[in-house]
Hints:
Layout: E1 2-8, H1 14-26, E2 31-38, H2 42-47, H3 50-53, E3 57-62, H4 68-78, E4 83-87, E5 91-92, H5 98-105, E6 111-113, E7 116-117, H6 128-138, H7 143-146, E8 158-162, H8 163-166, H9 181-192, E9 196-198, E10 203-205, H10 211-232, H11 236-246, H12 250-268, H13 275-293
Helix pairs in contact: 10-13, 12-13
Amino acid sequence: MLSILIPTKDYDCHQLIEQLHEQGEKMEYDYEIIVGEDGTRHDFLEKNINADILTNCRRIIRTDNIGRANIRNLLAVEAKFPYILFIDSDAIVEKDDFLECYIKALKDYDVVCGGLYHADTLTNKECSLRYRYEKNADKRRDADLRNQRPYNEFSTFNFAIKKELFTSIFFKPEITRYGYEDTLFGKELEKRGIEILHINNKLLHNGLEKNAIFLSKVEQSLMTLSEIEKEIGTTPLLSAVSKLSRWHMTRVYLFVWRQFRSTMVKNLTSKTPSLTILNLYKLGYFLLNRKQRG
Length: 294
């Protein structure tokens, strides 16, 4: 009934594979686990070798990196069951009935999002930017809140979908950098009138990057946004861009942003970064990238 798909690159996800396998073996339903190694280094391939050994598990190993959207699309095509469950490799399962909750929800819905959460304590202050960003977002991640804005809150981190539906849409293959493939997919579901159910079947997100790496990923996502902004429609950042344009303040903001860019980066890569500064930085970086694109 259920194909569990785990896209990964250079990440040790053997614990996640074992957790899902243990629950799968206890179910009365057929299942499989497919791990998609997207240009993964050899040392990480060795760490995830249990995907080649455990029953109902297998791996697809790509020597080249085809990107977040394409590896997910490939895994969906390879899945043999009518429902597919996408899980990011940096997740940890802490619910004993995690798979059963999805099986129950999928009886009535074609798309179900389980959600994510983060630990109460930060163990590595070098990851403080991503941690503060995610903990702030956790306030809006209860299922009741997500169901108020089901399409805007769609996330690829932990969701299940009918295979037939997914393969009629796919993630946009042109998106090879980090960011916004989930936003576009949610928009397409809304356009088609497909109902999304959000449930509290959360996974612990364990893959927090160091500040400089996360800031680089934020910049990648903003480059992606500048390429597809017409398809996205509106976001809080694009709304801010529109306001600056109406007020004829775009050039002024970008000029000031350039003067303080290095100061903002210094804050964002420190052990005590500011989310306000992150938002100001994102706005300026997007405007800069849009200007460079012409």
